[in-house]
Amino acid sequence: MTRRMSRRGRDVAVLLDDFGHRLPTVPTAPAATRERAPFTSGVPRRGPRGRGRGRAATPAPLSVWRMTSEQTPVAWPLIPTPGLPPTGAQMGIDLLSGGTFYCDPVGWVTDDDVPVTNPNVVVFGKPGRGKSATVKAFALRMLGYGYRTLVLGDTKDEYEPLCRELGVEPFAIGHGLPARINPLAFGPLGHGWDRLDAAEARRREAIIFARWLVLLRGLVGSQSVPFGPVEENAVGEALRLLTGYRSGATRLSEPTLPQLWRALDEPPDELVAGCRYADLRHFLDATRVLRDALGALVKGSLAGLFDDHTSIDVDWRAPIQSLSLSRLEPLGDQAVGIALTCLNSWGQAMREIADPGDLRIVVRDETWRQMRLGVEAMKSLDANLRLSRRDADVQILLAHKPSDMLTAGDATSQAVAIARDLLHLCDTRVLHGQDQAVGDELGSMLGLSPVAQRVVTGWAVAGKGRALWLVGDRAFKVQTVLTEPELRLTYTNEALTAGGAA
Ligand SMILES: Nc1ncnc2c1ncn2[C@@H]1O[C@H](COP(=O)(O)OP(=O)(O)OP(=O)(O)O)[C@@H](O)[C@H]1O
Ligand SMILES: [Mg+2]
């Protein structure tokens, strides 16, 4: 029916014309002239004919080598290892594969294909090579994955711009400032003590006291004073008395270092008896060196900083928290090292219990200052990592070189063994540029091959942010790429450029 109507009826153009409209007409394209093919004649398979011309299929001379797969890496070193999964922070370019390098320490632990068993990272490199910048970029880029950052001791206040950018005011610690940190704080383990059953209270007590002993061993050891069973017994007993644990109190009172020193210096009778000394004189004689070392610390390096109950209220839900220590710089490496030892212990306490999903990056920058305090301080750092109950925390240590602690005047085999132990606790090692002399040291302490050593002492020295990343036993040659805002936030050369401008 419609077809018939349309056949007989007027078409749209005529209809519109009646109302004064014109349908546009399709312009007719001019006929295209055919282009000539660029190649008029084909070339024969064996090339153009003629004298001295043409092609012959002659294979290139090959040299044949036979070797075992163990020897292959010598001839073809640093052949890209199997890549890492593209999860976590995008750090920069993996120059061996040409792809993007991603860093995801916790993800690596849970992935059976990646040979790491802990999420801890140690970063080595000579000054100014971009260690801190790499860590700051990592912290920033992991924010999107729910990670928060805790900087345990910012000795140069260089994390402050990053904190402020994220809307957080860092805490400044120094003489004359109000902030106090109590390294003997209970942390979340002390909460609700009166409601704990006996077994749980004993479990928590063991954890808290173990941490305190590690701290005191490090502090007393930094004064070159031995901390043996006698000292350990006296300190342990004094702490149990001070907290009220010995008397079975339902609410424990938090001790401070000056209180501990006073308890040892003017011991109550229970302490003397609890340590099984015949009389007061016997106790005082046996603990003289310990009391003097603690007294020197309480009146010296710890005074006004770590000698009272914690006075700062840390917001653990903020994206970053940092404790600035630059005001201690004029007091020397030892004072800074002692402050770092206290902060490490406090930080560990704060992380003892955390909600599920509370992922954190704990940064310990300038760790070498603590390492230099001696073997005991080194052991305390090692124990802090070992005792850390929270496997989901990414602990990052930054130091110049592995042998830093050996310069404490105690290059004993024990010190070397501890350094090795500490390295074993960090399955991911980031090696920024180093001088030639340190290359050999890396070889012996990290088992780095000569080729990998050359990457660290050659290629990595030639640019900031260049580093050999060892993820388990896999090596990656990575250039960290910083964006413009990150470059601004990580800039640490103010002093140099200000000097140049003057
Ligand atoms: N990947 C990078 N690209 C460009 N610039 C970088 C890169 N990494 C670091 N820098 C710049 O190099 C300077 C020094 O970096 P950084 O402070 O991180 O060094 P460092 O190794 O931590 O030194 P130190 O041992 O003295 O603490 C900074 O100004 C930083 O912005
Ligand atoms: Mg730095």
TrEMBL record:
Segments for region (Disordered): 29-57
Superkingdom in the source lineage: Bacteria
Organism, as annotated: Geodermatophilus pulveris
InterPro entries listed in its UniProt record: P-loop_NTPase
Protein name: ATP-binding protein
